[in-house]
Amino acid sequence: MPYPARRPTTGTDHLVSTTPTATLSARLPGPGPEPSPPRPHHMAAALASSRCCCRRPSPPPLQARARRAVARCALAGGEKRNSFSWKECAISVALSVGLISGAPTLGSSAYASPLEPVLPDVSVLISGPPVKDPGALLRYALPIDNKAIREVQKPLEDITDSLKVAGVRALDSVERNVRQASRALDNGRGVILIGLAESKRANGEELLDKLAVGLDELQRIVEDRNRDAVAPKQKELLQYVGIVEEDMVDGFPYEIPEEYSNMPLLKGRATVDMKVKIKDNPNIEDCVFRIVLDGYNAPVTAGNFVDLVERKFYDGMEIQRADGFVVQTGDPEGPAEGFIDPSTGKIRTIPLEIMVDGDKAPVYGETLEELGRYKAQTKLPFNAFGTMAMAREEFDDNSASSQVFWLLKESELTPSNANILDGRYAVFGYVTENEDFLADVKVGDVIESIQVVSGLDNLVNPSYKIVG
């Protein structure tokens, strides 16, 4: 799969040969002739190349999210391979050292202006506990600015952390969360209603009534010390909050750059169901993964994918990479490594598209590293198990086409909120149901179908409707 753009080598390259680490390149290339599964774009995840650092045998398949093995230095690749750059390994090594030991980052004039650090300020990157729930990430990623609803949302989200305390003691923290959310709703209801789109205000008012009733029910659950009933009720209430927040978005919030405005664009969100035939697990045969695609923060990337889904491009395609770190597919039969648009006879590519938290619109065509924005946080981070992103060529930021991958686990170099993937690869959605079963998917398993179940009306410029 693809990688970040090429840069000049520096004196840090000598570190590569001795320090184990890992990095993500969209088509996981790797040098060398080792045999591998069917030629996927090696989107890679740990050190994508046997040149970088050590070689380790592949661990047994990841069975659950709790298993967090160290990322491998040498990942098997397919026939289509690119060599992972020594420079990328050096970056990974430096970041690894900073994350693990707190040592100063390495300096290099090849990377930054005199006023910027060479590598991210780790103390900034890991400034708080990361949000890992895909539903929460999607709620926080909505383009809204309504403090009142966020003050209701946050204590409800915090219940997840409160429940990590053993036994019924957790319920004391949950009770505080519930009371805080109830006060915020009572005090901020008018501001929340004003923030709703005019056409959706009646629906929003009904949802706020349901939310108030649900908070009272959750309070009684806590008073009855019924710990097992807390999480389902929390999920229900957060769904109400999420819908209210979506009803605050009135139209698409920014203009797409002219050079991309005629591409398939998802101006909003869409939900797809991906049905996968899992061959080697007797307990799972057909598994349906629900995926929410976020066109607010990645309209070009998500639009391209929905357009391909409507063309049935992925139906019947095999999983081409599944190594415990990522699951990847999208490399069609034949020599082409992406989708060939029948109307042009050429591979359709899309630009790298990254939305930074606080920005009004995405940045295109360059990684955040190349832009010198080392402290920037992406709106759609690689935090969640099942984060979905585009693979691309190592030395071409704008080479993504049809190959997609799902992140499965964290390693020393991909901790949530402080990883080397954010800002280098375009995230455009999250698996929100059955994501844990991604760990059971193997190379050769077949995607039986991907179907859009909602949000297709948000797709503009659909090329699948054009004959030829």
From TrEMBL:
Enzyme class: isomerase
Pfam families: CYP38_PsbQ-like, Pro_isomerase
Region feature Disordered, mapped onto this chain: 1-42
Keywords: Isomerase, Rotamase, Thylakoid
Alphabetized PROSITE patterns for the sequence: CSA_PPIASE_2 (PS50072)
Gene3D superfamilies in the record: Cyclophilin-like (2.40.100.10), Oxygen-evolving enhancer protein 3 (PsbQ), four-helix up-down bundle (1.20.120.290)
Compositionally biased residues, Polar residues: 9-24
Entry GO MF terms: peptidyl-prolyl cis-trans isomerase activity
InterPro entries for the chain: Cyclophilin-like_dom_sf, Cyclophilin-type_PPIase_dom, CYP38_PsbQ-like, E_coli_cyclophilin_A-like, PsbQ-like_dom_sf
EC identifiers of the protein: 5.2.1.8
Tagged with keyword tRNA-binding: no
Residue span(s) of domain PPIase cyclophilin-type: 291-468
Name the record gives this protein: peptidylprolyl isomerase
Species whose genome carries this gene: Panicum virgatum (Blackwell switchgrass)
